[in-house]
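Sample pair:
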Amino acid sequence: MTLFELQQYIEEAEKNPVLYEEREFDLRMEVIDFIDFQVIERINELLLNAPQPDPLLALRNRAEKVKSRLEGVDVNLFQQLQRTISTTGFTTNGFKHLVNKYVDINPDGNGHGEEAGYDNLDIFINGLSPLQTMPEQTRDLEPEMVYYQKTPARIVFELVEKVPFIKEDVFFDIGAGLGQVAILVNLLTGIATRGIEFEPAFCDYAGACAAALHLPAVTFINVDAREADYSEGTVFFMFTPFKGEILQEVLSILQKESVKRKIRLITYGPCTSRVALESWLYIATPADDNMYKLAVFNSY
């Protein structure tokens, strides 16, 4: 971008009232990213060889102020929405409609790439969390345990679309991490959800988020997945929290639960191909070689 183009872009962002309307979250994110990674970075490049840096410094200051104003809109928006969540008992689709006012959900638009993908919906859902600082891991993982990676928000919305939940269901997220899946499933369906998490700091964080949002039906249990009590569960989710013998041991535990009642197991990531080999399960979604596509399995 030329200096004139930089000045023009900043001026347009300063004067565009639409950007400062709360409902224009997607557009605002686009502009914030552009200012951050195009405008400010380009100004910094120009500053390296500028004989008179003052005009560029002034322009960078304007760009940073616009970015800060836009981010301030989102801070206020998320504080307002956190209050709404903590005081509203959402009916079916109520939370989905709330989110869709600000960001395009459209789970069917998920491209299912070759790896877990994140977008503006993830930024929006992250902003709804009352706690914004990720805790540090305190326990060493066993070799077959997989380091925490957040499930893309679109996958959770898609999960709720694909699985016919009933009010009596109890949903378990095995390897719950910071709790996003269990919290979202509860907000989207109203059913009771449980998160099984090995790392105490992650479990405490997830529990604190659920408490701050006043979600009493969301519970997090700090326990090794091989030692958890799954007797309440009817629907289970795994975004590959472990592999090898640990995965096999947990699947064996779930198989024993399936003798007592029908259960569903939803997988995402590399664990899907291993789960597909289980003779006590049959796949209810079209078979697909893409590991980053949801797979829903039912017990016989």
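The two ends are 61 Å apart (CA to CA).
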